[in-house]
Design brief:
Elements: E1 10-16, E2 19-34, E3 37-49, H1 57-75, E4 82-86, E5 89-92, H2 111-123, H3 126-132, E6 137-143, H4 150-161, E7 164-168, H5 177-184, E8 191-195, H6 210-216, H7 224-232, E9 240-246, E10 264-267, H8 273-284, H9 289-292, H10 297-317, H11 325-334, H12 339-344
The protein binds adenosine-5'-triphosphate (ATP).
Adenosine-5'-triphosphate binds at residues 105-107, 146-152, 245, 247, 268, 325-326, 329.
Length: 350
Amino acid sequence: MNHFFTPGTGVHYFNYRGKFVKLERNREKSLIHKDGVRKPFETVTLTTYGIFGRSKPAEFWHSFLASATQEGLSTLKTGLVVYQAIGPEWKRLGNPRKKRPLESVILEGNTLENLFDDVVEFLASEQWYTDRGIPYRRGYLFYGPPGTGKSSFISALAGRLGYSICMLSLSERTLDDLRLNYLINNMPPKSFLLLEDVDAAFAPRDPETPTQQKMYEGLSRVTLSGLLNALDGVASSEERLIFMTTNYKDRLDSALIRPGRVDVQHYFGYCTPEMIQLLFMRFYYPKKVEDIDPKQALAIKQKELLELAKNFSNAVLSLKKNISPAQIQKHLINYKDDTQAAIESVEEIK
Ligand SMILES: Nc1ncnc2c1ncn2[C@@H]1O[C@H](COP(=O)(O)OP(=O)(O)OP(=O)(O)O)[C@@H](O)[C@H]1O
């Protein structure tokens, strides 16, 4: 769904979730007073023609309006606000950051779209949760090797949906169970909770070796049960979106990642050939063709670029190594003006 209310007055048609929607935009003759200014008054009428089957029209419109709102918010020219915990409060970390386009994060297959849809669907389902007495929260665990886009995706997603990020490090020495509980239950509205490297805070319940036990000693004052309590939260009727990341999923206690605390687990992996090509294309040609030149003059160049991207991908694959998107990015930055040199020097990727 794109460019919702950009069309001018009159009748427009578009497709949302497989159904045709008619949008009629009428400007009334009378003006309204708003903030001391006289503004034109508009009526927007939406009609859909579809067979709904088991999904109800109300759900369709609810999801539609939630999606449209999110998309509208994402176009506001505000940056991404990141909060960090200082004492018992969330404080803004520096100035709002420039939003990263969601499409600039390259994930395997339809992962990006599926995760995005999952979050949007959740945000549109408050009533569903309330009706069933289920706490209105959703937890995501992103795991996998370093530099595969876990944090980038979360930031880009927050930016896209007009959300802020509350970042919390569980291994921070001044954090204890009480403060953690207070912070998690008193987040600014419309924000994601981001717990990075969740594995780093707790010793496994059954450490494999005494050395492993030692590694964790004194690392954190937060206990696992303290975290679980805080996540389950007293104010569970409030919307809560929690993202956890780790490089070592196997080190996490199963209680932390059981359904209800973590509802979606996703592995962020090394580059597939398709991802390498997309990273290459996106790096040298960051804008969509239609955004740059509607007459498609640049599509020819795009074709050439696709050939180069394939060559680059083949060259990287010939290294027979696991390569992360971060490694590809670093390499391409070294050759930002020379596609051919980027291909010829792939063995520099380490
Ligand atoms: N899938 C990706 N698509 C585009 N860029 C990526 C991707 N993965 C990583 N990068 C780039 O690599 C850098 C590091 O990525 P990021 O911090 O998101 O990785 P991560 O998976 O969160 O790593 P870690 O597990 O170490 O926290 C960023 O600058 C980002 O632009």
